[in-house]
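Ticket opened by: R.M.
Priority: normal
Category: complex prediction / small molecule

The reporter submitted a protein together with adenine and asked that the result be attached to this ticket for the collaborator who will pick it up next week. Submitted input follows.
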Amino acid sequence: MKFYVITIFPDLIELFANFGIIGRAARSGLIKIEPVNLRDFAYSKHKQTDDEPYGGGPGMIMKPEPPYYAISSVRKADNNTKVILLTPQGREFSQEIAEEFSKEESLCFVCGRYEGFDERIRTMVDSELSIGKYILSGGEIAACAVIDATARLLPGVIGNSESLIAETYGTNPEYPQYTRPAVFKGMEVPQILLSGNHEKIRQWRKEHSYKKGEYK
Ligand code: ADE
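Result attached by the on-call engineer:
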């Protein structure tokens, strides 16, 4: 699966694309993450990607031309791609949407800057997506979160043991877990987990399974 990320911070995406499960999937060719530098599509003399807002007001606004040319270039290279603008006003991302996305061949994320973007950029994309009810400075972190959650669902991206964990837990670990040491700063691992009695351990885990929102 192919992921394009249109951004003024391509290095940030490049870094993300090189680590952990995502890095391994990229190296083995299961996914390809391609940062697209917005500045390469800023054709003005000073390669400006933002400008002052008409009507006045604070901050700088992302100009419409660079994302327009960047999106056109991605669509030309890959006419199957779905172009998604990351904004706090978009549809809220979820595991269900990650599953939907994992069936696509290609996605192209456009990272806005929260200071603002020219409203006409909204007409250039297929949909808008938010990763939650809070304001990030830009869409890059959101793009990484969405790519991570989506890529994990592709066949072969997570290894056998990792996949077993995902199946056991669903989207969340369901019960408290411990590893060595058995006592840490006076905090003891429940004796039952050290007992080797698998039936009792299963029972304990069932009784102690997390309730929704328990740690809010
Ligand atoms: N850009 C700024 N805030 C965002 C959010 N919550 N989700 C997606 N993109 C954003």
